[in-house]
Design a protein that fits this description.
It is a single chain. By secondary structure, the protein is of the alpha/beta class. The chain is 45% helix and 19% strand. Helix 2 runs antiparallel to helix 3 and helix 9 packs across helix 10.
């Protein structure tokens, strides 16, 4: 395959045009990169039936795949009319993540784009195994799309954690801001930088519940230290003061409220794999992903979004 950088759109198995199609086309044009679309098909019932009638199974599968291929070709044709260089394919596979790793090994990918699983119009939840595998393990930045508000993002929000005290964690904050800055630049979007200061969680973690009565004035000291660290990293990345937001409160509700107020299209955030599958992304990140107030671009340490 070609060794030029490209975007990968994971299309849903149902032949429906979703918000991820429009976002992928818009980003491909903005980033001036080719787009490859892949859909993964598999029917357990059909596969079981094929054990007893393999010839009929083969015909049924091939017929369905051909229909799906033609549908994707039609969608690719619509994108091409707008200047997107796009290819497509359909793969019959039971476990898509392993196939995605094959794509990653065979072509240099800048970004993987996929619709997030939608639970309702008011609450969007990522809960499919593939969503969580991508967020937890995928070595390439992953963009999960939840809304078709703006095909090309107009408002980008970078969320950082200034509590990171290890050198590698501080570098991770830089990577998050760099990724958000690049996305905002190519999309000609605004960029906001946010840190939510939850002093109660910090104090309880460090001192224990028994020490809470002694907390008078401590939160001001902790807040001042974090605000100073936040201002320093914002200054280093050239984020103007009016684009810096240091908020005190519970992280997830505060972020969701901010997203609604500023009509954020994409949150750029870091995801860190902790030990054990039950500790996938860290408490705040995991809760935020469950709430999904807008689309999310998740990056991991060491992975940069190519410009």
């Amino acid at each position: 395959m070609s060794q030029s950088q490209r975007l990968l759109l994971i299309a849903p198995s149902a032949m429906t045009r979703t918000p991820a199609f429009d976002r992928a086309a818009a980003l491909a044009l903005a980033m001036q990169l080719p787009l490859h679309i892949v859909a993964f098909d598999y029917s357990q019932a059909l596969a079981v039936a094929g054990l007893f009638a393999p010839e009929q199974f083969g015909l049924a599968r091939d017929g369905y795949l051909q229909t799906h291929r033609q549908w994707l070709v039609d969608q690719a044709g619509l994108m091409s009319k707008h200047g997107v260089e796009v290819t497509s394919e359909v793969v019959w596979v039971q476990h898509p993540y392993e196939e995605i790793l094959t794509f990653i090994n065979e072509m240099p990918l800048t970004l993987i784009i996929k619709d997030a699983q939608e639970e309702s119009a008011y609450k969007r939840v990522f809960f499919t195994p593939l969503d969580w595998q991508l967020l937890r393990d995928c070595p390439v930045p992953v963009h999960l799309v939840t809304t078709a508000l703006n095909a090309r993002p107009r408002n980008v929000l970078a969320i950082i954690d200034v509590l990171r005290d290890e050198d590698q964690d501080r570098v991770f904050n830089d990577q998050i801001i760099d990724a958000a800055t690049k996305l905002a630049a190519v999309c000609e979007a605004s960029l906001e930088l946010l840190h939510v200061y939850d002093w109660t969680a910090v104090y309880v973690q460090d001192m224990g519940f028994a020490a809470l009565p002694l907390a008078t004035g401590i939160h001001e000291m902790l807040g001042a230290a974090q605000h100073e660290a936040f201002a320093a990293i914002a200054e280093r990345h050239g984020v103007p003061p009016e684009r810096r937001h240091f908020i005190e409160g519970a992280p997830v509700p505060s972020i969701c409220e901010f997203v609604c107020e500023y009509r954020t299209d994409v949150i750029v955030m870091g995801t860190v794999q902790h030990k054990g599958l039950s500790k996938l992304l860290g408490t705040t990140a995991e809760q935020l992903l469950h709430r999904a107030p807008c689309s999310v671009l998740a990056i991991k340490p060491g992975r940069l979004l190519q410009s």
